């Protein structure tokens, strides 16, 4: 009789688990295949920085910059420029070049590093990794007992949520956009497959752990919101920003036309700030001074204001 009861319990266990799986699987599948937003054109260059709170460490996840690099590259919205370990390695190569150690024709030197139009700051602000071993699995595990009962009892349903933030800053204007991403998932504790086409180890647990997948969905949610916000802005960060300002390297004149014979509108002292309008005539630039006087200055007497 005891064997019959155990056999019946095992049969009920598999029937119960099949029923739970049939009910939970559609939601799990949807959350494990998030849609990365796509852009029809590139919006500029971007560097990725990890946030200060380091909320990802509580669940043994790596900093999110590596994950977001994959997301951004798949979206085609930005070109990622390296500002982390890769840049450190590149600078060591440049030090070798500066010391004359690289082969002739290596073409490594100053003025080659591409500027970032935007900086993306990523943070995980809230996570919930609560697990439940109750329900069908726990009840039947207690009936069956032993090793098999332990396995069945561990097959609970886990409810997980994650909240992330992304802040996107225009390097030139320092204008900033931010978005909050949220994700929730109910999934078997043993289930799940990777996504984004990357290996779990390469993405620091974001694709091969349950909480990692939920956090990933939350980041994609926030990123999608950011891209949506950028859709109403000028997508060329360099063109949208005002012209870089300059200062005079010595006392010079602001003239009415691009010539040394042009009427002097104002004497500019050394260190005066001027704002080029973009109009040029040879070595002469049309500028505005800080009092909104507009005229021409010889570029020989100007340097970028940093």
Mean pLDDT: 74
Using the alpha-carbon principal axes, give the shape.
elongated
Q: What is the count of β-strands?
A: 13
Measured distance between first and last alpha carbons: 87 Å
Quick summary:
This protein has helices at about 1-30, 65-75, 85-100, 135-145, 145-155, 210-230, 235-240; strands at about 45-50, 80, 120-130, 130, 155-170, 175-190, 245-250, 250-255, 265-270, 275-280, 285-290, 295-300, 300-305.
Overview of this structure, please?
With 306 residues, the protein is an alpha+beta fold. The chain has seven helices and 13 strands. The chain is 32% helix and 27% strand. The radius of gyration is 30 Å and the shape is elongated. Strands 1, 2, 3, 4, 5 and 6 form a six-stranded mixed beta sheet that branches. Strands 12-11-10-7-13 form a five-stranded antiparallel beta sheet, with no helix packed on it. A two-stranded antiparallel sheet has the order 8-9. It has helices at 2-32, 65-75, 85-98, 135-144, 146-153, 210-230, 237-240, and strands spanning 45-50, 79-80, 118-128, 131-132, 157-170, 176-188, 246-248, 252-255, 264-268, 273-281, 284-289, 294-298, 302-304. Strand 11 (284-289) and strand 12 form a beta hairpin. The longest helix is centred in the N-terminal third of the chain and has 31 residues, at 2-32. Helix 1 packs antiparallel against helix 4 (135-144) and helix 4 (135-144) runs antiparallel to helix 5. It folds into two domains: 2-81 and 116-237, no CATH class; 244-304, SH3 type barrels (Roll), CATH 2.30.30.
């Amino acid at each position: 009789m005891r064997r019959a009861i155990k056999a019946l319990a095992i049969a009920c266990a598999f029937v119960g688990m099949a029923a739970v799986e049939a009910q939970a699987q559609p939601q799990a599948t949807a959350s494990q295949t998030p849609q990365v937003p796509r852009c029809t054109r590139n919006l500029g260059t971007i560097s990725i920085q990890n946030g200060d709170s380091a909320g990802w460490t509580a669940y043994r996840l790596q900093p999110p910059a590596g994950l977001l690099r994959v997301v951004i590259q798949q979206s085609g919205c930005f070109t990622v420029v390296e500002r982390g370990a890769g840049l450190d390695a590149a600078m060591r190569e440049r030090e070798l070049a500066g010391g004359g150690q690289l082969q002739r024709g290596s073409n490594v030197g100053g003025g080659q590093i591409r500027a970032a139009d935007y900086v993306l700051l990523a943070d995980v602000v809230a996570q919930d990794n609560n697990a439940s071993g109750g329900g069908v699995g726990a009840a039947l595990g207690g009936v069956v007992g032993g090793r098999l009962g332990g396995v069945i009892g561990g097959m609970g349903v886990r409810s997980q949520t994650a909240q992330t933030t992304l802040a996107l800053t225009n390097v030139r204007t320092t204008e900033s956009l931010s978005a909050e991403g949220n994700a929730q998932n109910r999934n078997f504790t043993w289930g799940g497959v990777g996504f984004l086409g990357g290996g779990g180890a390469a993405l620091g647990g974001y694709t091969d752990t349950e909480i990692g997948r939920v956090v990933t969905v939350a980041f994609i949610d926030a990123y999608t919101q950011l891209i949506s916000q950028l859709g109403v802005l000028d997508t060329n960060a360099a063109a949208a920003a005002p012209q870089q300002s300059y200062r005079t390297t010595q006392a010079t004149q602001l003239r009415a036309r691009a010539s040394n014979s042009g009427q002097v509108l104002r004497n500019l002292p050394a260190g005066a700030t001027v704002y080029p309008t973009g109009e040029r005539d040879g070595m002469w630039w049309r500028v505005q001074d800080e009092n909104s006087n507009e005229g021409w200055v010889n570029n020989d007497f100007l340097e970028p204001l940093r």
